[in-house]
Write a structure and sequence with these properties.
The protein is mainly α and about 220 residues long. The chain is built from twelve helices and no strands. It starts with 5 loop residues before the first helix and ends in a 7-residue tail after the last helix.
Length: about 220
């Protein structure tokens, strides 16, 4: 398991609980750990966790809020770059975010697996259904920026017209599957710089083919 950094050790107990939960999710999965697994490395008793969180599910919702916070900052606009370069930089940052935070990738995958029952952690953290975030909620601004990036590409004749939500579905689904299939070594250990570059190239190639104008398609 990755060791806690100095900032985590000195952080308030509430934050340290979330840091430890993230490390456990990364190596054991969302359902593979208990509150005791959190308490022991922190040298606290389980009741100390209940002072900050109502339950294990409450801890996972708070970790999901961290994920939503980072996700909300994705697809930043780059006015000084061409639309193609701006989208590629944004996709590179998206890859970095997921690889550097393996717990978030695992939480996202679990959330998609609970259609009507169970605890949908990311939905609870986002405050509603995923589709609602296209126009409202904490992720609305991120989706607005993605639409702007794609519109700029259409105006410059570099991208074909396509629904921004379809592009988001494509890149997010492709990246999540790339990180866990056929094995999840990119999440279970620190990826090398070469491995990260390879994932970035792969995701960009996927997005570029999808967005290529008809005249550029094979």
């Amino acid at each position: 398991m990755p060791a806690a950094d100095a900032r985590s050790v000195m952080a308030p107990t509430r934050q340290r609980i979330l840091d430890q939960a993230e490390r456990l999710i990364a190596v054991k999965g969302v359902y593979g750990f208990t509150l005791r697994d959190i308490a022991v490395p922190l040298n606290v008793q389980i009741p100390a966790i209940y002072k900050h969180y109502k339950s294990r599910d409450d801890v996972l919702v708070e970790v999901s809020r961290r994920y939503i916070g980072l996700l909300a900052s994705q697809f930043a606009l780059s006015p000084h770059r061409s639309p193609v370069d701006a989208l590629r930089v944004a996709l590179d940052a998206f890859v970095d975010m997921m690889i550097e935070n393996p717990a978030y990738a695992r939480l996202a995958l679990v959330d998609f697996a609970t259609p009507g029952g169970g605890m949908e952690y990311v939905k609870l953290a986002a405050g509603g259904e995923f589709k609602e975030n296209f126009v409202g909620g904490p992720l609305a601004a991120m989706h607005t920026r993605l639409r702007r990036l794609l519109k700029d590409g259409v105006r410059s004749a570099n991208f074909r017209r396509t629904d921004a939500s379809d592009v988001y579905r494509l890149v997010k689904a492709q990246l999540l599957i790339r990180l866990v299939f056929p094995d999840d070594y990119l999440l279970s250990r620190r990826a090398s710089a070469a491995e990260v570059r390879a994932v970035k190239r792969w995701l960009w190639d996927t997005a570029r083919r999808h967005l290529a104008p008809a005249a550029h398609r094979r």
